[in-house]
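Final report, closing paragraph on structural work. Over the funding period we assembled a curated collection of sequence-structure pairs, and we close with a single example.
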Amino acid sequence: MPAWLLPEQVSDQLPQEAEQLERLRRRLLDLFATYGYRLVQPPLFEHASSFSLKGVRDLEARSFTMADQLTGRLLAMRPDITLQAARIDAQLFRSNDLNRLCYAGSVLHAQAAGLLSSREPVQVGCELYGHAGIEADLEIQELALASLSTAGIESVHLDLTDRGIFLALQDSDSALSEHEALANHTVQALQTKDKPALSALAALKPETRQALIALTELYGPARGQNNVIDRARIELPRLKPIEQALDRLQAVADSALFVKHPQCALSVDLADLKGWQYHNGIMFSIYCEGFADAVVRGGRYDGLGEDFGRSRAATGFSLELRSLGMVAERHASAGSEERSVKPVAAP
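Its predicted structure, as stored:
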């Protein structure tokens, strides 16, 4: 019998994993419902133009495409469900009230996010539409932390940033705002904290290069003496959008969220722009011990629904279910081992 091989970075879910992930999926969706989030199930594929919006090119690059045999139009397998949720909010809900949506389903990536990542991630997440205030960001972060707690993961690290800072620098420098390839190269250099690459960007204004290099050093504690936010107010240009972004980060750091979740360590990294290009405000990543990549990513993407007919304030988060299941299993095993160790009686 021939050995049937699956495509690269695609794998089966055998019974033990499949059953574990299904239990976890159900617990997460039940949790989301208690917060008022309603389940949507967008289609697995849409017209390719749905994933090729103005200023959002990375989704298009990660999409599998094919010709529709019925119409001849180009179709794309969804690389992300957030964009579909934004379309649903813009087109199918005409009220200006708050709209809370959640989802769980497979997405397909033509290129995996990393060497160990699947090209068929199972994306689970929540999106909140219609509120521009910091309360919406805090609700989403609270729900993200509650999701990890539901999976049995308590001790976590939340890392904050705000893409509005980079966007302000981009708007202030014509070279960055007019040349997409240069902007993408700059973001990549920021994410890897590559100071020589940033210093070599001769097309940029000297003050822009200086600010970008400063961003690579602006990471660390969000609170206390010499915290990152206070340092950023001194080291970054005094542009109004930058000041507004730092005020947003300060509001999150000062909130009661981290009093309610004392097991969550909080930090700020202003060069961490990992995530989709549609993010344009506060962003966050949550890390867990024993797993190198972020388990949860989320943030603001105000106005994304404009191309679908209605611009709305929007924020949300998503996680990859198989990664979460792996982390949850490791934490459960570690907890079992700790409970099984009996203290040695004193002589």
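The two ends are 63 Å apart (CA to CA). The chain has a mean pLDDT of 91. We thank the funder for supporting this effort.
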